[in-house]
Amino acid sequence: MKARLFLASDSTCQTYQEKDAPQAGWGQFLPNYLKEYSVFNHAIGGRSSRTFIEEGRLKEIEKNITEGDYLLVQMGHNDATKEKPERYTEAYIDYKEYLKQYIEVARVNKAIPILITPVARLHFVSGEFLVDFGDYCNAMKEVAEEAGCPLIDLMTLSIHHLTEIGFDEAKTLYMVDVNGTDHTHFTAKGADQIAIIVAKQLQSIIIS
């Protein structure tokens, strides 16, 4: 039986239908690079660490997750939206507390939680890719350290990747290349490249 990965995240990770092409999420490409694992992608757009729990989505994962499984948690994009108070969490207060709930659910069921910092948006100013969601990245790192939980710093890794390939190529990874407005969501090409980055990190964590 294959080991199993459960994904709890937002629109940057979710699996999209063919009608949504070329928009895609990195979670839907993860199975291509982790063939020895079964991937259950529970990511859905517009959810924060708070609303994912409030809507019972973590409960759905809890019904199935078991010993030896992994729970991957990438949250932060929607937590930072102050203009949508139903989603918003304060980085160093309730965001941290919600993240701890994901860790607890995994560990109670003898699964392994892995926290993943928010992936980069295409935010390019004066020749430099900028880090968004800095407080949320830092807060997640604090939770990982406090809880002794593995962490993938996807913000740093994705910024590094964008810097390596340069703005013109980086733009093709995001939906802004298609519609001129969306600097957050990925094209299939972009989602695939992020999946490769995540898969490499996961292999390192799991093997070690």
From TrEMBL:
Source superkingdom: Bacteria
Presence of keyword Hydrolase: yes
Pfam families: Lipase_GDSL
Coiled-coil regions, chain positions: none
Entry-linked CDD domains: Rhamnogalacturan_acetylesterase_like
InterPro entries in the cross-refs: GDSL (IPR001087), RhgT-like (IPR037459), SGNH_hydro_sf (IPR036514)
The entry's keywords: Hydrolase
GO MF term list: hydrolase activity, acting on ester bonds
Listed PANTHER family: PUTATIVE (AFU_ORTHOLOGUE AFUA_2G17250)-RELATED, RHAMNOGALACTURONAN ACETYLESTERASE
Similarity field: Belongs to the 'GDSL' lipolytic enzyme family.
Protein name: Lysophospholipase L1
